[in-house]
Amino acid sequence: MQLIQQNPDVHAYLVSDAAIDHWHPLVQDTADALWSATGDAYSYAKAAFEFVRDTIPHSADSGDERVAWRASDVLSTRNGICYAKSHALVALLRAQGVPAALCYQRLADDDGSNHLVHGLVALRLPGSDRWARLDPRGNKPGVDARFDLDREQLAFPVRPELGEIDYPELYAAPHPAALRALQESADQPELWRRLPTAL
Hints:
By secondary structure, the protein is of the alpha+beta class. Helices cover 34% and strands 13% of the residues.
């Protein structure tokens, strides 16, 4: 699949905003600690991915009903759904100068019902002209997302026969539908009702 930058300027994928708050001290401190243990962009990106994937449980797996949407809040509460975990990973990558984007899939239940939009991350290592998608959702039985910049290994391969879609757009900021669902939900049950079914 050909990934498409929503903004042609790669520098747009380094900025901070309300959700991708990589200026926040907790994001900076976490990024600095991960960088000091690695020292190069590839190793850092892998460590940041694995940190978000493995140390911040997905709310659906943990049962945590809190709704985090800012990257700093995700790191603080160690909680979030795919969108929120993606915000945290993008913030950590950008904090160390790695261009990072938000991207999405439309997924369904095994019978093709209950479509929901799932959040992912794409990164572009400094000096590269190629984007690679990653899924920091968190692994569990039947889900095995990995850090691989050459051969994509996401949590959920798309099944077009069920109406599932890989959206090719790379967003510099969270998609408004995803961000609105997070911001307007008081708890997880409300968030599940508000999740977008398509972009």
